[in-house]
Design goal:
heterodimer; A: 326 residues; alpha/beta; Rossmann fold; 5-stranded mixed β-sheet; globular; B: alpha/beta; two-stranded antiparallel ribbon; 9 strands; 11% strand; binds thiamine diphosphate; binds magnesium ion
Chain lengths: 326, 334
């Protein structure tokens, strides 16, 4: 069955609300507006205002309240409109949710799922275009997952809700309208294994989220130029399934990391360093990163596109490593 | 929506008088001992003493049931003790021992007990407030008649989270009691230098939360106000707010040279010491003999000494366990 990423998410939320009375969705405009990205459209009519809970513009307040509700026995799905606004709740996510279990000597876990949209590409300017997945992936105590496919959009939420600890789930805003083939029937998916989305022998393209599709397109183009690329989709940024991408790099001997965030101190840096630590002697070429340009996101379309990783950038980086003298 | 400070209204008998006095003495003696142990470097890190403010924790928590929840700040030793946690588990925590209430991972600022529904120990000013709302929301959604009490200082009233939390609590009519411990200072900044409107209960009232100001140096006034508030909340009438006017007799933390206030001001407030206050009240009514006072005091001191002994004999968690509790452990491994 073909469905959109948005529909997959809505189905997942609906199923969770039906399966477990403790589950409720809270966030800005999740109710009568229908969700900023229309993910929860129609749900308030079906499940009522208590379980589809509109909240005031108080990111720290409602995220912290969701954390408290989780500690009090509920299973909240907290929707933060976008990662840009999540910075106002960062203290609750880091200093309360992520530390609670450890700080209390193992007594208080926080079973909360925090969903947020991320990413650029829609000419929304500097304050609405961030990708800060790496900030969250930096934090011990959190789990950070990034569904890219419709199967994961449908399956990851339930697995995250069953997890006893806080899970942050990133949805790239450019994916909501994307269609995909649903192959699973609502069964839980594994949260923490990376996936080989295309097998290849010459070079590993390692990525997550939206750029899975950038990399798959790049791999097609590389194939036409005689380069057989393997595409590794991380799926989870914490914990990071190093085994899968290290195995891939050991096989191919080359790696390009494609990251929607800024280069300096980003996920790409982490992946690159893991490769250096674990597979240095298997490398036939230096590692390359294709990342967002180090600039606040400009509005003008041509500048925005120039700042974001593109298929051509990935192809060029890969060719440079495979055929350094071409 | 707001009322003037409550006069002492509770008429108490001998037993109740002794009980309240004993609770305040337990907290006072525990913390005096903590200060000694800090000087001996047995306790390290930040240590914030509640000495002078004991009437608030005692009067409020006394009004609760065991299944009600309490959240506090980093100045929470008294609240933890009053909620039923043992002096042993608290002292061991300050020693960093594995027998501590947070297994030595929390320290003085992060006391926790699931068994006693004591939810911490929050050391980011204001940050305990949103979870207070959430815990109360969970009770409301699950149809439980429990009350959640959040304690916080005057300093947190300046934080955005305070205002967000008051708004949410009032919007959702959650069963929460907000207890502002207004000790007139946020670290070294006096109330009138950090609040444009120093009558803090007015701020909660502006969100539609029934709010009063109470003398926090008078345990009977505290108790009376808390009982009324808790009863109203349990009846389903939504959140309540009490501003307790109180004062800390000691430095903000063990690092504070107290440059910002006069010794004379501190001495003036010590005349209103809640322990002395209640003792005098009981003595004047022939409800307490000198010998009885000594017995209560001795019992508190002995409890503290047992706690110190327990901590002295305690053990440290093996370093191999360092990475435990970052994530939940599967049931079978626990
Ligand atoms: C968000 C935040 N800012 C600053 C601090 C440092 N700090 C710790 S306690 C404190 C004063 C808080 O005063 P108040 O809320 O009145 O509580 P009190 O210490 O008087 O009990 C400050 C500034 C902190 N812990 N958290
Ligand atoms: Mg204060």
């Amino acid at each position: 069955m073909t469905i959109t990423y948005r529909e997959a998410l809505r189905t997942a939320i609906e199923e969770a609300l039906r399966r477990d009375d403790r589950v409720f969705l809270m966030g800005e405009d999740v109710g009568y507006y229908g969700g900023t990205f229309a993910v929860s459209k129609g749900l308030v009519e079906e499940f009522g205002e208590d379980r589809i809970r509109d909240v005031p513009l108080s990111e720290s307040g409602f995220v912290g309240a969701g954390i408290g509700a989780a500690m009090g026995g509920m299973r909240p799905i907290i929707e933060v409109m976008t990662v840009n606004f999540s910075l106002l709740a960062l203290d609750q996510i880091l200093n309360t949710a992520a530390t609670m279990l450890h700080m209390s000597g193992g007594q208080f876990n926080v079973p909360v799922v925090i969903r947020m949209a991320t990413g650029a590409g829609r000419q929304l300017g500097a304050q609405h275009s961030l990708s800060l997945e790496n900030w969250y992936a930096h934090i011990p105590g959190l789990k950070v997952v990034v569904p890219a496919t419709v199967d994961d959009a449908r399956g990851m939420l339930w697995t995250a809700l069953e997890d006893p600890d806080p899970v942050v789930l990133f949805e790239h805003a450019g994916l909501y309208n994307r269609e995909g083939e649903l192959t699973l029937d609502g069964e839980p998916v594994d949260l923490h294994r990376a996936a080989i989305r295309r097998a290849g022998t010459d070079i590993s393209l390692i990525t997550y989220g939206f750029h899975l599709f950038t990399c798959l397109d790049a791999a097609e183009e590389l194939a036409q130029r005689g380069v057989d690329a393997e595409v590794v989709e991380l799926r989870s940024l914490r914990p990071l399934d190093t085994e899968t991408f290290i195995d891939s790099v050991r096989k191919t001997g080359r790696a390009v990391v494609v990251d929607d965030g800024w280069k300096t101190g980003g996920i790409g840096a982490e992946i690159g360093m893991q490769i250096v630590e674990e597979a240095f002697f298997h490398l036939d070429a230096p590692i390359r990163r294709v990342c967002r340009a180090e600039v606040p996101m400009p509005y003008a379309a041509h500048l925005e596109q120039a700042a974001l990783p593109q298929v051509d950038d990935v192809v060029e980086a890969a060719l440079h490593l495979v055929k350094p003298h071409v | 929506m707001t009322e003037k400070p409550q006069a002492r209204v509770e008429n108490i008998d001998r037993d109740r008088g002794h009980y309240l006095l004993h609770q305040m003495l337990r907290i006072r003696r525990l913390e005096e001992r903590c200060a000694d142990l800090y000087a001996q470097t047995k306790i390290r890190g930040f240590l914030h003493l509640y000495i002078g403010e004991e009437a608030v924790a005692v009067g409020v928590i006394d009004a609760l049931r065991d299944d009600d929840a309490v959240l506090g700040t980093y100045r929470e030793h008294g609240h933890a003790l009053m909620k039923g946690m043992s002096a042993e588990s608290i002292m061991a925590e300050m020693y960093g021992n594995v027998e501590g209430c947070s297994m030595g991972r929390g320290g003085s600022m992060h006391l926790f007990s699931k068994e006693h529904r004591f939810f911490g120990g929050h050391a980011i000013v204001g940050a305990g407030l949103p979870p207070t709302v959430g815990l109360a929301l969970a009770d409301k959604m699950l149809g439980r008649d429990r009350v959640t009490v959040g304690f916080f200082g005057d300093g947190s009233v300046a934080e955005g989270e305070f205002h967000e939390s008051m708004n949410l609590a009032a919007l959702w009519q959650v069963p929460a009691l907000f207890c502002c411990e207004n000790n007139l200072y946020a670290m070294g900044t006096a109330l009138d230098r950090h609040q444009s409107q120093p009558d803090l209960h007015l701020k909660a009232a502006s969100y539609g939360i029934p709010s009063i100001q109470v003398d926090g140096m008078d345990v009977l006034a505290v108790s009376h106000a808390a009982r009324r508030a808790v009863a109203a909340i349990r009846d389903g009438s939504g959140p309540q707010f009490i501003e307790f006017l109180t004062y800390r007799f000691r430095a903000h933390s063990m690092f504070d040279p107290e440059l910002y206030r006069d010794k004379a001001e501190v001495e003036k407030w010590k005349e209103r010491d809640p322990i002395k206050n209640l003792t005098t009240y009981l003595r004047e009514r022939d409800l307490l003999t000198e010998q009885e006072y000594d017995e209560l005091d001795q019992s508190a001191r002995q409890e503290v000494e047992r706690a110190v002994e327990f901590a002295e004999k305690g053990s440290l968690e093996p370093v191999e366990d360092l990475l435990r509790f970052v994530y939940s452990e599967p049931e079978e491994d626990r």
